[in-house]
Amino acid sequence: MSRPVIGVSTYVEPARFTVWDLPVALLPYMYVEQVTRAGGQPVLIPPAGDPAALVTRLDGLILAGGGDIDPDRYGASPHPRTDYIRKFRDTAEFALMTAALEARTPFLGVCRGLQVLNIALGGTLHQHLPDVVGHTGHSPAPGRFGPLPVRPAAGSKLAKILGGAPVTVPHYHHQAVDRLGTGLTVTATSEDGTIEAVELDSHPFAVAVQWHPEAADDCALFEALVAHAAEFADATIHPEGH
Fold it and tell me: What is the number of H-type helices and E-type strands within the chain?
């Protein structure tokens, strides 16, 4: 059986490698490793051209982490700490997200990916979480994950994947959900009340987490995505009654 094709969105940032110093479409390799480990075939999707048109070729989609989303998309003025806005990436990923939801493509949002989902459905963000919770544990230092526990909600898809007990996961985010988007259910919170995961009620598998599962030791979330992607691919190739 061929591996389900999992599209993963990418950053576009300046990067240095070998003798080059250039703008690069890039992605932390942990995403690639986790998707491959889970049995999927990762395909990187840069924010260029018409990425939404690729959805029909995908069995699953991951919106990866990255810089902050333009606050204008949810009717807010920028906070002084809102940074690394890439409007071209916002445009590409909101279109990609909309196409994936319409196609009912299995979806996993990671950090920024959760925020894209929430805003696309009419939600808003806290632009600098330390102002709300009074600590920096969700993003302790540049380039360093913060291990914090989250509690999955009983009966949620996330609880079936991770178990119902609190689980310590790697965090690196200074923004989080404020007003919840239409049709979303909160499926995990941290001890300080921050929304750490959501699911789209009307979708077979649209799960998004505020932490960074690509940096975790296990690949349970990626395994769940790939399993649903395999079912989605099979149903697309062999629709019921044919």
Answer: 6, 13
Residue with tokens 């996961």: 169
Tokens of 23: 């703008």
Element holding 21 (H helix, E strand): strand 20-26
Q: Which residues are catalytic?
A: 111, 212, 214
Q: Which residues, 6+ apart, have CB-to-CB distance to 79 below 8 Å?
A: 71, 127, 128, 131
pTM of the model: 0.96
Divide the 242 residues of the chain into consecutive groups of 10 and give the mean pLDDT of each group.
94 97 98 98 98 97 98 98 97 98 98 98 98 97 97 97 96 98 98 98 97 97 98 79 42
d(CA 175, CA 179): 12
Tokens found for residue 115 = 């925020």
Strands 125-126 and 176-177: antiparallel
Q: Are strands 11-17 and 5-9 parallel, antiparallel or unpaired?
A: unpaired
